[in-house]
Structures are given as C-alpha cells and as structure tokens.
Amino acid sequence: MRVLKFGGSSVGDADRIRDAAAIIQSSASAGTIAVVLSAMKGITNLLLQTAAEAAAGDETYHAHLDQIRLRHGQTIESLFSAADRAVVLQPIDDLIKELADILRGVQLVKECSPRTMDLVVSFGERMSCRIMAAFLDSLGAPAIMVDARDLVITDNYHGSAAVDFALSYRLIAEALRGLAEIPIITGFIASTDEGVTTTLGRNGSDYTASLVGAAVGARAIEIWTDVDGVLSADPRCVPEAFVVPQLSFKEAMELSYFGAEVIHPYTMIPAVEKNIPIWIKNTLNPNAPGTRISDDPTRDRHPITGIASIEGVALINVEGGGMVGVPGMAGRVFSTLAQVGVNIIMISQASSEHSICLVCRQNQARLALEALKRELAHELEQKQIERFELIDRLEIIAVIGEKMRGTPGISGKLFSALGDAKINVLAIAQGSSEMNISFLVHQDDARRTLQVVHRGFFDADAGRTA
Ligand code: ADP
Ligand code: ASP
Ligand code: MG
Known about the structure:
The strands form three sheets. An eight-stranded mixed beta sheet has the order 3-4-2-1-7-9-10-8, sandwiched between helices. The protein has about 475 residues and is of the alpha/beta class. It is built from 14 helices and 16 strands. Helix 4 (about 80-110) packs antiparallel against helix 5. Bound molecules: adenosine-5'-diphosphate (ADP), aspartic acid and magnesium ion. The site of adenosine-5'-diphosphate has 19 residues, from loops.
C-alpha cells in the first residue's frame, strides 16, 4: 500500500481538488492506496479566528463562518453537476449548522477552551474529506470518507496531543483492511479514548499520513504539497533555493523542527520505526522527481543539506559569577520554565558557566523571565546572579546536514560569510551530533542572513556546493 497525503493548498479550490483527484486515480490504478487530506487552504486559520471572535463576543465571527460556508459551497458548485450538488452540499450544511451551534455556545460562555478549540478546527478536515470522497465517486472511483477520530487515539493534551501508537496502529489497520473503496482519511484530527476530539498540532496531517503508513506497513508515504520537494531553504526567503533530491530521516526531522514547514517534524517518527520512505511531491508538477526521505539517502558531496529558520523568538540570558561550578543551576532554570509551560527551543552555555542563554517563543518570553526572576530571587539578592537580560524580536537560523560531521571548516565558512556581510550573531549552539549549527540574529537581519548563508554554501548554479 501507498499513503498519499494532500495538504491545504492541494485541496485549496475546485481546480486543485481536480488535480489531486487525478493523482489519486492514477495511483489507485497502480495499486492499493490510502489518502489523507488537510482542510482546504486557509480554513483552519479561519476556524481558529471564528472561535476566538465568538469567545470575545465579536459578532464578526458570523461573517467568517459565512466565508467558510461559501468557500465549500462554491467548490461543490464547480466540482459537481447540478443534479449531484444538493446531495453533496447537504452533509456540509449539516456540519456548518453544528459548528454554528458550537460557536453560539462559545459566545454565550465567553470562552473557548483548548478542548472546544480542537472541536472547532476539526470541521475543516471533516468537510474537505467529504467533498473529495464524493468527487472521486462521481468520477467512478469509489471512495469513502474515514474520520480519523475513530482511528488515531491520543491523550487529552489539546492542541498538540500525544498518540497512543499501539492502539492507533491496530485501529487503523483494522479499519483499512480489505476496504473496497479508497479511504479518504481526515488528517490532523484524533480523539481521546473517551471520544473527545483532539488535534496533532498545526501541520499535523503529515503526521497522520505517517501514522497510517506505519499502521499498514506501507511501501511509501507521499506528502503532496505546492513545492517540488524539500528545498535547500524556504523559497519565500531564498529565491534561488533548490530541491534536495534525498535526505536522511534525521536531516528531515532537524530541518522541520527548525522551521521548514514543508513537513511536520513528528512525521518522521512512525516512518523511522517501520523504515518507510517519505516522498515530498508537488501536486502542481506531479512529474517532478520530488524529495526522498529515508534511512539510506544517496550521499552527494554537499556537507550541508539545508538551512531553516524559526522566527518570533526571544533570548533570555541569565548571568552571574555565582553560577560557576554550582551543580543544579541549569536544572532549576529548566524545571522552572517547564512548570510554567515554556518550551525552550535552543540553549547555549559557555564553558565558563558564567551565563546560561535560552531561546523561547517571543510570546512566552515575559512569562519565562518573570518565572526565572521569582525562582532565582535569592541568588539575585546574594549577587550570585548579576542580571537577567531579555532580547526580543530574534530569529534562529539553523544550518543542517549529517555530512557536516567530520567535515572541518564548516563553522569557519559560515561565520566568515556572516562577518563579511556584517551580520551580528547573538548566540550560537551546536549539538554534539554535529549535524546542526544554529545561531541567533535580529529579526531584521534574518532574510539577508538566510541569503548570505545560502550563497556561502551553494553556488548560484542550483545544487552545486560553493
Ligand atoms: P501543505 O498545505 O501542503 O501542508 P505547507 O504550507 O504546510 O503545505 O508547506 C509547504 C510550504 O512550506 C511551501 O510552500 C514553502 O513555502 C514552505 N517551506 C518552508 N521551508 C521549506 C523548505 N525548506 N522546502 C520546501 N518548502 C518550504
Ligand atoms: N489543517 C491543519 C493546519 O492547517 C493541519 C494540516 O494542514 O496539516 O494546521
Ligand atoms: Mg503542511
């Protein structure tokens, strides 16, 4: 079996759905497949917005709900003959009514809990999958919408729930075994064992596809998106970025963790476990070879495979002579941040131990700083800690490649390129795996940094090491 996942842009309107359906049909004629879909492009964001507006008592949520209804309605109108439209529209209208009731409830209680938020966003995938299944049927390719909430079981950490792999694998395998129709499975959404709707985190449909692939022992997991593959950098920042033909699972995980949103980082977990290659393919250009992610990538001569970045971060620097040689200081810092739910993205500590430097999301920076000041108030008073520093509006840039290990001169090349371009680096971290060098720059320098680094490592002639 092969698993094909189509992202929001690949089901963004009637034309894209036609393209995706053609790929599904030709894949189905070559063997057994399962399909995973995202919501139509922009719908998840609109759903989040309606819920936030309803909770704030802002009546604009009605207009946004109408917009959601209209997008789906227009798509159905374009895809189906006049005779079929009403039948396809009915279940979508029922879902919109159910959603309107939920939003009315949110407005009344004036709050939208993470649990309700997950329920609200689940409507996007539930609608797109119904439309695709009906459309394939109308083309003479029998398909059935499958609600992943019956198959993917998670804990109740709403917004980014953790999967019960053994149970989910069993349920998925049972549901798909011997199915006559092409299953069109809702990506991103799941449920607790009590049937409460959860989600796997933004971009989580990729992860659903990989869970399905692992459950059925698929031959390949194909992520169909709007670019020709994983590129050497985000094409919106670096126009000369080129397709990387092959990547290892680790490189893909690192790149996606450090911001390459073309694939969700967790996607690699089930694929590694069952050793299933992942392909990134372009719905708009299906004949392009794409990127193959596997445990045995063909190695070319590039020491680095890609550059990625995480925007909207802040740096907190805890500084003081009294931390030198004191065991447990880093532990206290990290557990304090964990207690207030702050996720640390990057850490760097000089071997003098004079300062600990932490990077977190901008929107959590003040919470983190306050928590640290509370926890370390005594040390501050005793002058063991001299100061806390917060620097806002930064971006992490990460240079990634397994082949960097044992290749001398990478850091030299990197930092001299930055120096020549007069880009100020605020902190640096390199894991001992040596497959990632990450550093911090001011947000205003980020775009230029990505371009300078890309140029520093690759020729203008795409794909050639400089
Ligand atoms: P989908 O809707 O198919 O899930 P996403 O928008 O989640 O698509 O991911 C695809 C987008 O990721 C691309 O359009 C591109 O702008 C962006 N992107 C960021 N970094 C990279 C990268 N290194 N390689 C490819 N695409 C990238
Ligand atoms: N629709 C969800 C999102 O926008 C999941 C996905 O697209 O993968 O995040
Ligand atoms: Mg995506």
